[in-house]
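Write out this protein's structure.
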Amino acid sequence: MLAAGFAIAFAISTAPAAAQAVAGTLRVSAIPDEAPTELQRKFKPLGEYLSKATGLKVVFTPVTDYAASVEGLVNNKLDMVWFGGFTFVQAHARSGGKVTPLVQRAEDEKFRSVFITASNDIKQLADLKGKTFSFGSESSTSGHLMPRSYLLAAKVNPDTDMKRIAFSGAHDATVAAVAGGKVDAGALNISVWEKLVAERKVDPAAVRVFYTTPTYYDYNWTVRSDMPAELKKKITDAFLALDPATAEGKEILALQRATRFVPTNPANYATIEAAARNAGLLK
């Protein structure tokens, strides 16, 4: 292992294939549910913290799409990935159960999605019939899978009842599409929505939430199951030790939009797996 305290290195790439295994390196990525620059900004202090905690050089490699994050971990091009619930389920199935979720934010135990619109004619899910609509990425839990699940439960089939559906690729892009009038409505994760409102990047008087889903488990940090147990413990302990009472903990938790991190396990995502299979999104 490398000595503790190595500075974090950011290797910018279009795919995790560029993340070659190097002794003493922890190769990390995240689903691209926000702009790459935002993901890197959020991860930098966390990467430096994990470097000190593990004694490894931490290399963050952005990926172009959700599928690349799954394939990167499954094919040993990445060591740890920030997954949504659905991408974890995909990676778990794709690897034959050989990936392990370590921790999630306390907020991810009761996550929600929001449906937004700038139209006065849309007040409930049923009003989306005949309208144009944007999900996020096709592999997004909070931007596609769970919104689709609740639409189907409300007797609204996006594929047949809506005029047109689109996939923006990211939560902030969905907000931009609704605000710009490209679609009548959209769905995204509540955490990104609240961040954009707080940063005044969206006017909630112009673009409003008209439906909030029930809660479900979502994001987590996942590693390959063959990672040494000692390293898994160091990473887990580092996340669990983050404390908002310290300057470092406060900064990292704020950037991760978390009050704290808690342990998680595959069983927490059984509902998401069932929803994916019911929607025909997981074979």
